[in-house]
């Protein structure tokens, strides 16, 4: 028989638990203090604000920080960096790279990305997981104290400070490969402090951040190509001619090779129809046909990285596949396939089923450009139509231009965008696709993100935020009148602002929590009818939805 537990032993167990609770509470308090200090570094992103130091000068100064903090040797000789710029898909491409490298047993893979959805530590992933709070705290105070106390220098602005902090975190973790996602642009981005990356890439390009990068695709491409380095091979996804021309011009100026990544299809063939090896077709971990483009680029980046670093394991896998499929122009070992299948990237074409209301499902995508909004709408439409087909419903939701009932599903479009963007452009792009795919939107809902929770900007003027949501709602109603994508009555709750018009009704909510509560009430009311919610227009809004649903999984 087991010996009885003495009172003394029980007291000891209780004491240890209290000690653990105290230590955890102290860790949380220390972390919160770091976040408060970090928030003080937040500034605007305009390059030439009167009285401020220009972006060019700030970029030059950042090199001094890297050198003075003794991070240069790690960055240039130990990090073995993969550097990725672009308008669309650069985060997904980086995530594919990370997953494939880990599947090929590369030790300590670091991933620096932006923005974060819920927790700033998401920006610093090591082997697929956000850096721990304790490690973050230690690196934060080391970086801040060294700059201010030892170097007697001012802290750089938010993103630049995070880049320096990231280098410290990844250095301490002894990363074998550091994947750097450009924050904004390329030429003057903090990540471009790396002078000798192993390989660089530019993902699909489009018009975005025009107030900073330029108002044409040529100008934007030129800024993105600013990460090109002499004698470092650069890869790119297929581009429109105007963008490609700028990339080619930069290639000639820098003196590097520029390669358009060969595309693989989901059956594992290259663009010429040749099988790429392996036993099964490619099942991407990220949904959407455009992810094939990102995955293809990631495959080329990992191969080039392995060639430059002479990574025996990856090179052996590639050689083994070449022997099996000597005629294939694009070789894809099974380790690559498994890596592509296991890739996860929160907030991008992510489906989350609500645990409170079982008939409520969120379709989340951080799309915030015209083209990405179209892609997002196509993704949502595909799921809606698949459900409709399963229910045995007619595919056509329109009769003489008028919407019919959406049957067993109530579709909601929850939208927000930053004021620097055009809601008319973003919403019109979505509506065009939704109508072409015969997808009815029953409710259009608008609410501001809880940006303060992201540590990016403080939400101080509720009235101004609601005015912007009202403006977006007005834009939606104007688009309704022209395109005929009528919405229906959603709620007359006092917590919302429901504005009637000849073409329907929109719903404005003051907070993300309020929006989710309203959606849950609607789901309970219409059950067993489904409520499917497309959330788009802002990564910050997507992050807040995930935070409220407690679905991001950051500990």
Task: Give an overview of the whole structure.
With 555 residues, the protein is an alpha/beta fold. It folds into two domains: 55-342, 3-Layer(aba) Sandwich (UDP-N-acetylmuramoyl-L-alanine:D-glutamate ligase), CATH 3.40.1190.10; 350-549, Protein-Tyrosine Phosphatase, Chain A (Alpha-Beta Complex). The chain has helices at residues 7-39, 55-68, 72-78, 90-103, 133-150, 158-172, 210-213, 217-224, 241-254, 291-309, 312-324, 334-342, 370-390, 423-436, 462-483, 512-526, 539-549, and strands at 82-85, 109-112, 124-126, 129-130, 177-181, 199-202, 234-236, 258-260, 350-353, 360-364, 398-399, 402-403, 409-415, 443-446, 496-501, 504-509, 530-536. It has an eight-stranded mixed sheet with strand order 4-3-2-5-1-6-7-8, with helices on both faces. α1 (7-39) packs across α5 and α13 runs parallel beside α14 (423-436). The two termini are 40 Å apart. Its EC number is 6.3.2.17. Residues 84-300 form the Mur ligase central domain. ATP binds at residues 348, 365.
Distance between the termini: 40 Å
What's the CATH first level of the largest domain?
Answer: Alpha Beta
Quaternary status of these chains?
A: single chain
**What average pLDDT do the residues reach?**
86
Number of domains: 2
Spatially, the strands of the biggest sheet line up as: 4-3-2-5-1-6-7-8
Number of strands: 17
Overall body shape: globular
- Give the low-pLDDT segments: 46-51, 395-405, 452-459, 489-504
The named CATH superfamily of the largest domain: Mur-like, catalytic domain
The CATH topology of the largest domain, please? UDP-N-acetylmuramoyl-L-alanine:D-glutamate ligase
Provide the CATH architecture of the largest domain.
3-Layer(aba) Sandwich
The major sheet is characterized as:
8 strands, mixed
Any idea what the radius of gyration is?
25 Å
Approximately what portion of the residues adopt beta-strand conformation?
5-15%
């Amino acid at each position: 028989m087991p010996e009885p537990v003495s009172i003394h032993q029980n007291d000891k167990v209780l004491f240890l638990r209290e000690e653990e609770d105290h230590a955890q509470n102290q860790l949380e308090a220390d972390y919160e203090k770091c976040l408060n200090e970090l928030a003080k570094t937040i500034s605007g992103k305009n390059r030439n604000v009167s009285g401020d130091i220009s972006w060019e000068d700030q970029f030059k100064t950042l090199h001094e920080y890297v050198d003075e903090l003794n991070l240069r040797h790690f960055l240039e000789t130990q990090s073995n960096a993969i550097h990725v710029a672009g308008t669309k898909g650069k985060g997904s491409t980086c995530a594919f790279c990370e997953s494939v490298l880990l599947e090929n047993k590369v030790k300590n893979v670091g991933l620096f990305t932006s923005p974060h959805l819920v927790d700033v530590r998401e920006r610093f992933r090591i082997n697929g997981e956000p850096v721990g709070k304790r490690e973050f705290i230690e690196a934060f105070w080391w970086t801040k104290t060294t700059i201010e106390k030892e170097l007697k220098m001012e802290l750089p602005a938010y993103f630049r400070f995070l880049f320096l902090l990231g280098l410290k975190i990844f250095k301490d973790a002894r990363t074998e490969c550091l994947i750097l996602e450009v924050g904004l642009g390329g030429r003057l981005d903090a990540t471009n402090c790396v002078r000798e990356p192993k390989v660089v890439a530019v993902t699909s390009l489009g018009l975005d951040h025009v107030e900073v990068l330029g108002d044409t695709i040529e100008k934007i491409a030129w800024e993105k190509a600013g990460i090109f380095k002499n004698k470092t091979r650069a890869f790119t996804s297929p581009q429109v001619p105007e963008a490609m021309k700028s990339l080619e011009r930069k290639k000639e100026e820098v003196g590097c090779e520029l390669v358009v990544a060969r595309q693989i299809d989901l059956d594992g063939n290259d663009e010429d129809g040749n099988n790429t090896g392996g036993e099964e077709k490619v099942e991407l971990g990220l949904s959407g046909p455009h992810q094939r483009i990102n995955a293809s680029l990631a495959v080329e980046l990992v191969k080039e990285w392995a060639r430059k670093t002479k990574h025996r394991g990856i090179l052996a896998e590639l050689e083994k596949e070449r022997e099996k499929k000597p005629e294939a122009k694009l070789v894809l070992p099974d380790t690559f396939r498994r890596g592509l299948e296991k890739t996860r990237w929160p907030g991008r074409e992510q489906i989350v089923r609500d645990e409170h209301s079982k008939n409520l499902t969120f379709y989340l995508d951080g799309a915030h450009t015209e083209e990405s909004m179209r892609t997002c709408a196509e993704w949502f439409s595909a799921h809606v139509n698949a459900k409709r087909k399963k229910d045995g419903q007619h595919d056509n939701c329109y009769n003489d231009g008028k919407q019919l009932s959406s049957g067993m599903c109530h579709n909601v479009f929850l939208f927000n965008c930053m004021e620097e963007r055009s809601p008319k452009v973003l919403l019109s792009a979505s509506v065009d696709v939704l109508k072409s795919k015969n997808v009815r939107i029953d409710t259009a809902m608008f609410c501001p993100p809880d940006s303060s929770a992201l540590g990016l900007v403080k939400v101080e003027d509720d009235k101004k935020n609601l005015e912007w949501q009202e403006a977006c709602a007005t834009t939606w109603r104007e688009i309704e009148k022209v395109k005929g994508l009528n919405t229906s009555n959603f709620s007359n709750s006092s917590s919302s602002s429901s504005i009637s018009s000849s073409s329907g009704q929109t719903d404005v909510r003051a907070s993300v929590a309020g929006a989710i509560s309203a959606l849950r009430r609607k789901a309970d009311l219409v059950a067993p009818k489904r409520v499917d919610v497309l959330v788009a227009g802002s990564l910050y809004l997507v992050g807040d939805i995930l935070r409220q649903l407690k679905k991001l999984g950051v500990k």
